[in-house]
Write a structure and sequence with these properties.
The structure is a homodimer of 186-residue chains. Chain A is an alpha/beta fold. Chain A is built from eight helices and five strands, in the order E-H-E-H-H-E-H-E-H-H-E-H-H. Chain A has helices at 19-32, 42-48, 57-75, 90-100, 113-119, 124-129, 160-173, 180-185; strands at 8-12, 38-41, 81-84, 104-110, 151-154.
Chain lengths: 186, 186
């Protein structure tokens, strides 16, 4: 059955670029279609796998490698996973891609820094500008955008609903989830 | 299908008590029966999830909590898992049990310290006695045996093959894996 295939939607993008918002919509729809699903967002992982790690390049890399380790364990056993950490470094994302092969689907939530900073949902940009948070991606720490993401989402130009739909369409096209009609009919 | 149910065989026991030996036999047989399966042994986890952690009570607890987090993610998605770390502290094992409910199956590989030390497969006891390894379970660090393990294996009295069979019988009785006859026939 199509819904029993493993894949990893690997979100990457600046803080405030829409990773969590889109993931929330996506989870709702995927659960409706009866798919197994796990979400490894930055906070869950920092709490359960990476407590004690900071935000230096080395610690960020370690954190992302742990996410990739767990995402691989799940997806290779046909459990779809969504990861939603900033994951700013290209090299480590590519390491995750290599590990998971064609189960790895990079989703780049792209938005200009100014837009993300204006949204500032968690008030983190203000703190970063005030120097209260050091090593903040986009301000005082680098972000390396993907060069060929499977899915590019321009969150300053499309709504969260449109973005979620774009991802669902992609998954349907690749036969990784059942089509919406079928799901409704069953 | 019976083989699609998640469970966690949580091995606990001293170094040299037989966790890895029995796990190896078990994996071979379970794979033969076509079951999905992941193994999280102490070394794999220390490498992929817990690099940098030491062997203080606090670090050991963190390590075991991470194993439990991943074992829960897998088993709740119907992927059977075997964990094979010493996991010396009862309280943290019970935390894992609480998290996984009746998916959690504690397997206590019991053998007198003297027997484990005599085996000393990895030469670790010798190093611990020489003071080259500090905080070594059974020598300079505590081991708290389970009070009511689902499966008790006395590895000084039974062979690894008998031990693996005992676990397979348990899993069959609970209908968590297909019976050997069925597996052979299919």
């Amino acid at each position: 059955m199509a819904s029993e295939q493993g894949f990893c939607l690997w979100f990457t993008g600046l803080s405030g670029s829409g990773k969590t918002t889109i993931t929330t919509l996506l989870v709702k729809e995927l659960r409706k279609r009866g798919s197994k699903l796990e979400v490894l967002d930055g906070d869950i992982v920092r709490e359960n796998l990476s407590k004690g790690l900071g935000f230096s390049k080395e610690d960020r890399d370690t954190n992302i490698r742990r996410i990739a380790f767990v995402a691989d364990l799940l997806s290779r056993n046909d459990v779809p996973v969504i990861t939603a950490a900033i994951s700013p470094y290209r090299e480590i994302r590519d390491e995750a891609r290599k590990k998971m092969g064609d189960r790895f689907i990079e989703v780049y939530t792209q938005a200009p820094l100014e837009v993300c900073e204006e949204r500032d949902v968690k008030g983190l940009y203000a703190k970063a500008r005030a120097g209260e948070i050091k090593e903040f991606t986009g301000i005082s720490d680098p972000y390396e955008p993907p060069e060929n993401p499977e899915i590019l989402i321009q969150t300053d130009k499309q709504s969260p609903e449109e973005s979620a739909q774009q991802i669902l369409d992609y998954l349907e096209r690749r036969d990784l989830i059942p089509a919406a009609e079928l799901a409704t009919a069953s």
